[in-house]
Amino acid sequence: MIKNKTGLSGKTTALFSKKANPTIGAASGYADLLVGLKGWGYKFTTTQKKRIAANLVINSKSTAADYANAIQGLKAVGLNPAKFKPAGAKKAVNLVSGLYRQSMSKQTPNVKSQVLLVLTMSSTFKRPSNAKFSKTSLAKSLVKDQQSNNGWAYNNTAASVDSDTTSMAIAPRWPTANPH
Fold first, then answer.
1. How far is CA 84 from CA 33, 75, 80, in A?
2. In whole angstroms, what is the distance from residue 7 CA to residue 25 CA?
3. Same domain, 138 and 65
4. Residues ≥6 apart with Cβ < 8 Å to 38
5. What are phi and psi of 10, to 5 degrees?
6. Which domain holds residue 150?
7. Do residues 30 and 15 lie in contact, with contact meaning Cβ atoms separated by under 8 Å?
8. Do 77 and 49 meet the contact criterion of CB atoms below 8 Å apart?
9. pLDDT by residue (tens digit) across 1-48?
């Protein structure tokens, strides 16, 4: 945690680092930190946004969870994941379309929940015509993953039901289930 203290300042290479996380860089699970900072009113500087963008790694080996983390993190700092221009790239890429092209059939309830939560973050996230799933089909798949004790488990077994995975499964559906 000490190294993370100055991660956005550039004084360390551990946070948002391609060197520390060569396959995913800034997509390495730090979206929750960025969302938390935004939630507390933190204003990201242009330099910080550039640092995050420069260290984001999304490629043909990226998973649905990698895409979801990247989209969530970029959205949190104020960058558009549907028109994201990676550092050094000549053209922008649509990470939302990339996520929709990922297969959800063998994903864990945790990943399905994370993807559904990310796709409900913005009404501007449009489903492409070549998508492998829809928000509705993903939600239905997630409902089928509910265990006999009414919870969800990271590995989809009743013995492993936990509050974190259950809350992740419920969170993206809450606004439509309870509009008040």
1. 20, 10, 6
2. 13
3. no
4. 44, 76, 77
5. 90, 0
6. 105-180
7. yes
8. yes
9. 344 444 555 554 455 566 666 666 665 557 777 888 888 898 989 988
